[in-house]
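Reposting from the mailing list since nobody answered there.

I have sequence plus structure tokens for a pair of proteins and want to know whether others read the tokens the same way I do. The first protein:
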Amino acid sequence: MAYLIALIPALGWGFMPIITGKIGGSSANQIFGIGAGASIIGILAFLVMHPHVSATAFIFSLVCGALWSTGQVGQFESFKRMGVSKTIPLSTVFQLVGNSIIGVLFLGQWSGSKALMIGFVALLIVVIGALLTSVSDEAEGSQKVTIGNFLFLLVTTIGYWVYSTFPNLPQVKHEDPVGVFLPEMLGILVGAAIYSTFATKGASWKQAENYKNILGGLSWGIAAFAYIFAARQLGSNTAFIFTQLNVIIATFGGILLLHEHKSAKEMKFTVGGIALIVIGSICTIFA
């Protein structure tokens, strides 16, 4: 049963970009949908489980959720620039490498020369995998991994790094994960609402896509909530391995369901790159 629960985050996070891609709309529509849908899951979880959360942890969680929305806006915009099948592998690598470096420098992870060697070799494998997935035929389509698109996604990923580091902050480290889940989701909604209002000068509130994209938010919120229980039952390392399956689902879902074109050469590089990303991600847990 624990392993079935661990598959939920992979499915939810993997299908989220496909759902929002099918629905369409602007980045403002999509990020609002994620915030609203995730907040619905957070409210339901809070009402059913009645967890405790301190005022300090509530505020910290709210802020970190809002910062997460920065990373997600960057990802949605990158979907339009590069396509889901190119964005997700790169975004996963940026998150994994950034979080690992932060862990080593500030959180005391990968202590010892052996752990560092295994960890950085694993990250190298992941980076090579990402480079393979970004290979494009110059003559094919307009959704390419240009330097500008690459740097845009990298910079906006900082929001994800802050969100991922957040559980290890002393203000919330010993809090119940279920307790901080609701303020995290509300923070995402607040960040999304602010972005949507200023980016579209309020126009997005009148657009149907703003509310249709709540379906993607429900998928994301269920995945995030399920991950709490997967990590509790299997340990965070094992649960993390399962979440990496979302790269496979989102990448090939983008190709098959969103009809993102791949030439024969691009498909070979994509398959090889995804395999390396998953292998490298798994290897990091042994560091």
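The second protein, same order (residues first, tokens after):
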Amino acid sequence: MITVTTKFLKGAVAAAALFATTPMAQAEVLTMSSWVPPTHFIHTDFLVPLTEKIAEVTEGRVTVTILPAPLASPPQHWELARTGVADITWGNFTYEPERFVSMWFAEFPNAGTNAEAQSRALWQTYEKFLAGNAAFDGVKLLSVGMFGGGQLHHGSKSITSPGDVANQKFRMGGPIQEKLLTALGAVPVAAPATKAYEMLESGVIDGSLHTMESVVNFRLEDVLKHHTVFPNGFYDATFFVAMNGGKWDALSDADKAAIEGIIGEELSAAWGRNFDNQDQPAIEKMTAAGHEFNDASPELIAAVDTVYASMVADWIGAAKSAGVADPEGMLAFYNATYAALAAK
């Protein structure tokens, strides 16, 4: 005779066996490759909050782990995301200038000095004009960003006129900056910002191109004490946060919808705000240390504007070849959108 107790025990064993063979739902763990140290504000104030928000809005179903070391050099980070070597990466579009010809316009002079407004305007421009461009295939673009206008910085003298710029050796970081300096009669020297201090100390360069925050964050305030300010920025840089397209597609519809609510224009704005928040304290610190700040003269601004017009004309043809149907309209849209956002 089978007792009630025996029946209960058999049922419990069967239930336990079924539970043991049924896979539990597990969180999707994404990897992020980043190339700044964990003390940098991009890491502490932008990337870490992004990972926290993704976990929060998906209720822990999707988490992001920032790897302890980058998986490749900075210029390779778009490709890391596109090919899925890392799930999420960030970087500068014009580290691959030929791939991202469409983005050159936002790194030219006069792109603005309000990084949040710039970053919002660039996102809107991307969505309206570039979302279907082949250069962006293979990834889910999470955000774009700009840094609020780079300026000219010199180690030993004031730079205000075209004559002051001529024959001075400036460290710079990309082909657009190289063209700009060359056209002004300066001598461009390609090197990362991390090399600026030793190059200034050894006399290899006379000055360097940076945002205001970069002078302080790269600890250059002892060797760059003369700052030339262009009201609309001397040059700029464009950045991305990208996720592998296949990984994005594999997420559940619910998780994709949740993440969509924290990326795009709002995440782009957060990028820009972080740069805006860094710039003013940097200026205050350098002012207190006795640094010299000079407005670019009307003659120097006019010289830069002439170069800018030439750069835009050359870019229009290149952008059309890169699949941008209306480069002039795209640039006009960015400028108008930025102006409206910056005025708020």
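Reply #1 (J.P.):
I read it the same way you do. Residues 1-24 have pLDDT under 50 and may be disordered.
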